[in-house]
Every structure is written in structure tokens, then in C-alpha cells.
Amino acid sequence: MSVLPDLHLHYVQTCQNLSQPENPFIAHVLQEADKNAEISTKGITLKLAGNNHLVPVPRVTDDDLGVLVSVLGQAAFVTGLDLAYNLLTDAGAKTMATFLQENSTLQYLNLMFNDIGTSGAELIAGALSSNQSLVHLRMTGNKIGNQGGMFFASMLKINSTLKKLDLGDCDVGLKCLVATAIALTQNKSLKAINLNRPLLSSQQEETTVHIAQMLRTNSSLVELHLGKHEMKNFGVERLCDALYQNSSLRYLDLSCNNICWDGAKFLGELLKKNQTLEILDLDANRIEDVGIIYLSEALATRNKTLKALSIVSNNITGKGLVALAQAMHSNITLSHIYIWGNKFDRSTCAAFSELITLERLQLGCIDVAPYKVDGEIRLAELSHGLAKHRYWSPRCAAVDPGAANASLAIVAVSEYLKDAATRTKAGDTPNMVV
User: What is the pTM of this model?
Assistant: First the structure.
């Protein structure tokens, strides 16, 4: 067991030795960490995100990071580091890359929404080619570009430790997505990947075709985010064809695409035969009544594995929503439904109010709640959903992420990453990614 150093004292001394001014935010977090009596047995994540505070704090800079990693060099009990929403650049990425090459205990690293570019991505990806401890990396929102994404694709051919990688909102392009799909035909360790919002100029859906080809042979991936890919019905058909042969994927995110009711028909046929998919996110598409009726038919008659379905903002009227509510009466597996942003009528309000009254749906598992006005039932929005805490998570321990359904990701992606293959127990709501 490693000796537990006084992190705050070591930080103050290192700042003095390097003639670097102290960052009061870092000093405070390290003081709190020193008070944690369980760090020697459970490890600890240092939460230094720059956006989680009611009172503004000085965000972490490249120079601050240099001091911090010097302090953490002997702190084997620090297993997670959250540096999201700070001021780190490629210089900070170089510092972190060196740390990753030397450190053998860090499992979780969150760098989302900093100012890391292509060269920083190259350094971090290069460090992960030899690192054997990190299991979860979030690069979300760093504009690493297509070339930066290519470095991570190359890393996936070598690294056998990383289980979750988030490259959403990173401005990656077609070449990166194709290279990543090819790498995942070889990589057998990655369990979840977020590829949301690439920059694509082609309308031919080449990337979807390559990802579909990967899914035919990949047997390890359980969570896949393909939001904002400009995916159309053709791409959905290719994915569904591949998923007939896939027995591992459990979470499929197709939110914010151009999927219409024809695409929903392909998904409905898939759900009739697929026995592994548990979460389907179709937010902000346009499947309309015809599309949700196809899905409802599959859920009512054949599918017994899907646990969560999100159809927020899909131009669905009461006809389609009532069909979904009726399917819920015969399907006992589907436990989480998200419907806000569609066109509610009286029949919709009555149908979902009945599901909640009969306790077929729990209020923590849906994004609407019934109320009455002049004796008439209406539905109010609840702040629940699959992506509620994708970009932000509460620091307050009193906030229960399960109650708000912060995420239903099957892969555990908390700072203490558990076995990614462990299935969620009925009714549980683990914290999320990608």
C-alpha cells in the first residue's frame, strides 16, 4: 500500500519550488481530499471541473496542471481526474500525456470542453498506446479535428485497456469515422464510444455504412452514440441489417438525425428479433405517428428486452402516443419512456396518466407528470432523460442521479469504472457517457 501524502501540503510546497502561484480552487479540492478517510481503500476522483460551482472559481490552466501532476506523481490512491471546462491547451495536453506514460493508477480522465487541439490529441493518443491503466477518457468538445481523431483511431488498434472513449463534439470528419470503424473491427476491449456531431460534407452516409460493417464483426461494443450524423432511412437500414448479426450492442443513440417513419419501420422489424438491445434513443428525429406505431407493435408483441425508449421531439400526435401507451400494458420490460416535445392531446394525457397511476411507469422513469386544470388532465415536463447529465453532473451528494434518470448507459462510467460487461439490475439507473 502506498503512503498517503498530505496533498495540500505537497501542493503548497511544489508551488513554492516552481515559483508558481497557488490556484485556490485546486488547493481547496486537495484539502477536502486529505480529509477523506477512505482514499486508501477505494481511491478518489479529484473533481476540478470549472463549471460545477455556484461561485466562480479560477479555472485550471496549463501551468496549474504542471504543478498538479507533480503532486499526484506519488498519489496512487487518486484514480480519477475531472478537469472538464477548464483552460487547458495543447501545452496542458503534453503535460497530461507525460503523466499518463508514467502513471499506472489513473483510471478516469475527463478533459471535456477545454482548448486542446490536434497536436494535443496526438500526444494523448500516443501516451495511451502504452498506458495500461486508463479505462475511461472524455475528450468531448475539444476541437481536435479530423486529424486528431485519426490519432485516436490508430491508438485503438494498439490499446487493450481503454473501455470507454468519448469523442463527441470534437469536429472529427469522414476519414476519422471510417478509420475508427476499421479499428473497432480489431479492438476487443472498448465497450462504449461516443462519436456524436462529426463534421460531414457528404450526404452519401459512407460513415454509417462502415460503422454497420464494423457491427457485423465487433463482439465487444455495448454502447454506441451516433447523434447528429445526418443519418437518413438508408443509414438506419444498413445499421439494422448489421444488428441482426450483432449480439453485444445494448445502447444505440441515433438522436438528432433525419430518420423518418421508414427508418422507424426498419427499427421495428429489428426489435422483433433482436434480443440484446436495451436502450434506444431517437430524440429529435421525425418518425411521426406511423413510425411510433411500427415500434409500438414490436414492443407489444415480440420484443421483451428493450428497457428504455426516448422519442422526444418526433412530431408524434395523440394517435401514435396512445399506441405506445397501449403497448406498455402488454410489455412488462420497457420501464423508461421519454415523450416530451410531441403533440399531446386529451387521449395522450389520459393514457400516460393511467400508466403512472397504475404504477406501470414511475415518475423517475418518464419525462412527464400528470396534473389537473379545471378537471382536465394535462402533462407537465419533468427534467429527466437519457442525456440529462451528459455534459454536466451535480456535485451535491443530496442529488440522486437515479431518481432523475441522469443516464441509462449500461456501461458503468462513473469515476470508479466497474466491469463494463455487468448488466444493470432491474430498476437500477447507473451514472453515465459517452
Answer: 0.91
